[in-house]
């Protein structure tokens, strides 16, 4: 009898569902905990968009605020591709508890941070848990839900993650204006404790491998190389044009290491890795490659939009953090609507490509429209329409590509493909946010240096870049210069988002339009 020599995930079996019933936890409760964790982890990636200005000014480090979200995204992307395989080895329960502990401890430390360094480290700890919460939700659903119902439950997970990322900015602004920014992190603690209790006391452990196969199942080397590549990339883009010149040896060295590490990662994964994060078989599949590539570039667009829109409404239009966040709520509804509509369409027709191409084309137009936003409130309807269309497209494509991902592969390859799309998505998170922040910060600094003159110019520029929310203390003429510089910088960020949306559309075009049977 042949033996399976390289299982990526133990095949879902009725035994798992029977053990779940025997434990008394119930599928509804476990789904609720998984969705809650996914929602909080996704929201935590964007909740800082409307509060990092306040945090940066309080810590006198406004020019370093990019680290508040990039540290979270960087750490979440570091282990996220490994969590599925780690849970193969140690069991789902064990890894669920570990990632919940990371997220809980990191959130508590974020709320207690006293400076930018402490906050960035705490965000990195929370990111280790957040990445696992989002990845394992899909894995556990795949284990425990019968095949015919799996699409419905997977849509719950996808929707909570997508809505969480979309609504984070509003929650951050509202909580900041009513309670204070530290509460944005403390709100994760009560649901985190509840989930820890459910997983530790009620959920049975399952799907474990023998200890002799531990290292064989985990691509430690690949994950380490990717971590080096992402870390050096974030350091370079956060420093270049901001605290150091792009020609600075430190920045050049970090970029060189990053490029070399990315090249080594792809070579290692496609050539030498025993259990690669990027399976050569999956890379050769048009649907898997198209789904992963579209997610990488779409999340670059999404992170740019999520970062830029609140800053535009607060810095250019003069809204408070909570009011700026309120403007993102309709986009959140559009995201949820997009998730729901694409599921209904695919369920009714069994096709997905044409629908995804159409909504992605409108997403591109919405991103192009954002570049045209004026610095006044005269075109609020146009701004509102752009956010609605972009949100609907984002929700549709994220869910639709998860379905297209598995439409043309064997069942035993599901885990590998799922890990791969999360790898591309999380890397898109990191690269998209760091590149967009670098563009805005470098442009802002350049515009200020060109337009603020005089003996105190350097002092004024440093004050503006480290305490942006206190610009009102300056004279009206300097305030006008700062406002113009911010507006032009944000427009450049929107241009970057538009370019990413175009490439995401091209990635969707290369996919096959497989037919999905009803059973």
Automatic annotation (TrEMBL):
Residues 30-519 form the Major facilitator superfamily (MFS) profile domain. The chain crosses the membrane at residues 25-52, 64-83, 95-114, 120-141, 153-173, 179-199, 220-238, 250-268, 288-309, 324-343, 355-374, 380-406, 418-440, 493-511. GO terms for molecular function: basic amino acid transmembrane transporter activity. Keywords: Membrane, Transmembrane, Transmembrane helix, Transport. GO terms for cellular component: endomembrane system; fungal-type vacuole membrane; plasma membrane. It is a multi-pass membrane protein. It is found in: Endomembrane system. The keyword Transcription does not apply. This is Major facilitator superfamily domain-containing protein.
């Amino acid at each position: 009898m042949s033996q399976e020599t390289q299982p990526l995930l133990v095949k879902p079996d009725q035994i798992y569902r029977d053990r779940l019933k025997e434990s008394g936890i119930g599928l509804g409760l476990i789904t609720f905990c998984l969705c809650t964790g996914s929602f909080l982890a996704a929201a935590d990636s964007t909740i800082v968009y409307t509060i990092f200005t306040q945090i940066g000014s309080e810590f006198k480090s406004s020019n370093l605020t990019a680290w508040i979200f990039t540290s979270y995204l960087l750490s979440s992307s570091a282990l996220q591709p490994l969590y599925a395989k780690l849970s193969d080895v140690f069991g789902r329960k064990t890894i669920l508890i570990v990632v919940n502990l990371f997220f809980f401890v990191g959130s508590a430390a974020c709320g207690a941070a006293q400076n930018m360094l402490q906050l960035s480290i705490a965000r990195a700890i929370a990111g280790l848990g957040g990445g696992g919460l989002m990845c394992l939700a899909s894995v556990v659903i795949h284990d425990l839900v019968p095949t015919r119902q799996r699409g419905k439950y997977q849509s719950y997970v996808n929707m909570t993650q997508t809505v969480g990322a979309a609504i984070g900015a509003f929650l951050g602004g509202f909580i900041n204006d009513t309670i204070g920014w530290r509460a944005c992190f403390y709100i994760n603690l009560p649901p985190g404790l509840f989930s820890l209790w459910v997983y530790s006391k009620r959920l049975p452990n399952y799907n474990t491998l023998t200890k002799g196969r531990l290292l064989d199942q985990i691509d430690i080397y690949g994950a380490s190389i990717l971590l080096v590549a992402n870390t050096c990339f974030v350091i370079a883009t956060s420093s270049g044009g901001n605290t150091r010149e792009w020609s600075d040896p430190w920045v050049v060295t970090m970029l060189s290491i990053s490029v070399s590490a990315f090249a080594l990662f792809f070579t290692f994964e496609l050539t030498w890795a025993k259990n690669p994060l990027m399976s050569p078989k999956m890379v050769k599949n048009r649907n898997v490659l198209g789904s992963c590539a579209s997610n990488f570039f779409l999340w670059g667009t999404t992170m740019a939009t999520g970062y830029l829109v609140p800053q535009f409404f607060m810095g250019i239009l003069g809204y408070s953090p909570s009011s700026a966040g309120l403007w993102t709520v309709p986009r959140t509804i559009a995201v949820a609507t997009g998730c729901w509509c694409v599921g209904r369409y695919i369920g009714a027709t069994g096709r997905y490509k044409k629908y995804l191409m159409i909504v992605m084309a409108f997403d591109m137009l919405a991103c192009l429209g954002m570049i045209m936003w004026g610095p006044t409130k005269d075109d609020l309807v146009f701004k509102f329409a752009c956010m609605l269309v972009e949100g609907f497209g984002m929700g549709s494509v994220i869910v639709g590509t998860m379905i297209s991902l598995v439409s043309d592969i064997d069942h035993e390859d599901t885990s590998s493909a799922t890990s791969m799309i999360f790898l591309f998505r999380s890397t898109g998170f990191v690269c998209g946010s760091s590149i967009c922040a670098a563009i805005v910060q470098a442009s802002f600094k350049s515009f200020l240096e060109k337009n603020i003159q005089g003996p105190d110019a350097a002092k004024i520029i440093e004050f503006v870049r480290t305490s942006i929310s206190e610009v009102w203390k300056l004279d009206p003429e300097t305030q006008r210069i700062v406002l113009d510089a911010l507006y032009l910088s944000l427009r450049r960020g929107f241009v970057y988002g538009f370019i990413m949306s175009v490439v995401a559309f091209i990635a969707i075009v290369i996919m096959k339009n497989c037919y999905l049977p009803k059973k």
